[in-house]
Amino acid sequence: MKDRIKLHDKVFKPLIPGEQIEKSIDAVAAKINADYEGTDTVPVLLCVLNGSILFTAELMKRLDFDVDLMSIKLSSYRGTSSTGAVHMDMGLTGDITGKEVIIVEDIVDTGRTIEALVKILYARKASKVKVCTLLLKPEMYKKTINLDYVAMEIPNDFIVGFGLDYDGLGRNYKDIYILDTDTKL
Ligand code: 5GP
Ligand code: MG
C-alpha cells in the first residue's frame, strides 16, 4: 500500500488495505449465500457503474447460487461532494420485470442515489429490491431504505480506490485511501 497518492490537485493517505477489503467481502458474501441457500429464484445482481465494478466482480466470485448480472450507470458526485441530483447516464442493461434485484453499490453516503435507484427499479416492475454496499458512511445516511448487506462502515470523509474515483482517477487501486488535508503538495 502506498504511503500517499496524488490525484489531480489532492493527496490521499491509506485507510483500508486490500486484504481487509477482501475479508469484508468474504463476510458479506457468506451472509448472502446463507440467505439464498436452496433458493430457486435467480436474482439480478445489479452493478452500479462505474464505482461498483471491482466490488461486483469480487462479490460474484464468492456467490454459490445462480445470478443474472446487469448494469446501470448513475452519477451524483462532481469532485469530492454530492450534487444532490441523481442522473441516469446509462439505463438498465436488461429486463427486470418480476425479478428480485440485489443492487451492488460501492458506497452509500447521503443515500440519495440508492433511494432514487430503488424507485427506478420498482417502477420497472422489480418484484423485490435488496441493497448490498461495500461501504457506508453511517453519519451521513438519513434515508429509511433498509441496507440489507453492508461490508464496511467508514468515517464521513472522501475516499478513493477499489473502484471509487476522484474526478475519474483512482479507481484502479486495490486499497482504499482517504483525503489527506495535512500533506501539502
Ligand atoms: P449518495 O447519493 O449516497 O450521497 O452518494 C452515493 C454516490 O456518491 C456513490 O455511489 C458514489 O458514486 C459517490 N460517493 C459518495 N461518497 C463518496 C466518496 O467518499 N468517494 C467517492 N469517490 N465517491 C463517493
Ligand atoms: Mg456509485
Tally the beta strands: 10
The molecules bound to the chains, other than polymers, are: guanosine-5'-monophosphate, magnesium ion
Judged by helices, strands and strand pairing, the structural class is: alpha/beta
Chain-averaged pLDDT = 95
Q: In angstroms, what separates the terminal alpha carbons? A: 20 Å
> Globular, elongated, flat, extended or rod-shaped: what is the shape?
globular
Stretches where pLDDT is under 50 for at least 5 consecutive residues are: none
Sketch the topology as an H/E string, one letter per element: EEHEHEEEHEEEE
Specify the number of helices.
3
Top keywords for this entry?
alpha/beta; 36% strand; globular; binds magnesium ion
Brief account:
With 185 residues, the protein is α/β, with parallel strands linked by helices.
SSE blueprint:
Blueprint: E1 5-7, E2 10-16, H1 18-35, E3 44-49, H2 53-62, E4 68-78, E5 81-90, E6 100-108, H3 112-123, E7 128-136, E8 149-153, E9 159-160, E10 176-179
Parallel strand pairs: 3-4, 3-6, 6-7, 7-8
Antiparallel strand pairs: 1-2, 2-10, 4-5, 9-10
Helix pairs in contact: 1-2
Bound molecules: guanosine-5'-monophosphate and magnesium ion (MG).
